[in-house]
Amino acid sequence: MYKINGSIWIEGERGAFIGSGRVVLLENIKKSGSISEAAKSMKMSYRQAWELIDSMNKQSQKPLVEKTSGGAGGGGTIVTKEGERVIKLFKELQNNFRKFNETQSKKLTF
Questions:
Q1: Is 23 part of a structural domain of the chain?
Q2: Contact partners, residue 62, CB within 8 Å, separation at least 6
Q3: Does 105 reside within a domain?
Q4: How many folded domains does the chain comprise?
Q5: Is 93 helix (H, G, I), strand (E, B) or coil?
Q6: DSSP 68
Q7: Predicted confidence (pLDDT) per residue in 85-96, tens digit
Q8: How distant, in Å, are the alpha carbons of 74, 79, 83, 93 from that of 71?
């Protein structure tokens, strides 16, 4: 039996906007409240993480991630409501893509 596989991402005029890796980055920022911690958890540099965030924010009508200024504990980073909406929509799209692949795989006969 054969199986169709693939990855899905959304591109804009400036290239990649959102994909699996970027969603994981957003989720890790949401958990940790820190770009640095999110980057470390993914074994990527802070600079690379920031470039991905900057790219997403510039391509979106509303920012997906914002830095917060802090008091005694210092500042942090939050995933905005728009960021959460993008995560949810991408996961729905990814799930539909997975279902499509499963359905089409069942039709393969060679």
A1: yes
A2: 80, 82
A3: no
A4: 1
A5: helix
A6: E
A7: 999 999 999 999
A8: 5, 19, 24, 39
